[in-house]
Amino acid sequence: MNQKDQVCQQKLMVSRDALEVIQGKWRLPIVLALTFGDKRFGEIQRDIVDISPKMLSQELKALEENKIITRTLYDSMPVTVEYSLTPLGRSMKKMLDELLNWGYHFRKEILGKQ
Predict the structure, then answer these.
(1) Cα–Cα distance, 97 to 56 (Å, whole number)
(2) Measuring CA to CA, how many Å separate 18 from each of 64, 67, 111?
(3) What is the model's pTM?
């Protein structure tokens, strides 16, 4: 395998790893919601109106397992749980900005919407 093929294979592997973490309909919207600050479960659910509580719970767990978000329990009555981006999650900001720019372009070009 030549160097060009090795670089291609490495980039394919890295891109698959990244897509594994952010795959699905809900993970990027959750991360995007948390770029606006730490939030409780209900606040995230209000931001992402069509996500079910079960799906939100599953996706939050997956994002936490991948060290994209962190879950903090506060000793209060009732117990308060807050979600926030980790440094790894915050490092996604540039990618999210580019994805949003492309999304605006796509909506304008293909869907004819602003």
Answers:
(1) 23
(2) 15, 12, 27
(3) 0.85
Nearest partner of 30 among 52, 63, 1, judged by Cα: 63
Q: Is 82 helix (H, G, I), strand (E, B) or coil?
A: strand
Residues 40-84 pLDDT 10s:
999 999 999 999 999 999 999 999 999 999 999 998 888 899 999
Cβ-based neighbour number of residue 48 at 10 Å: 16
pLDDT over threshold 90, residue 113 = no
Q: Which amino acid is at 88?
A: L
Contact 28, 22 (CB under 8 A): yes
Contact status, residue 86 vs residue 68, Cβ threshold 8 Å: yes
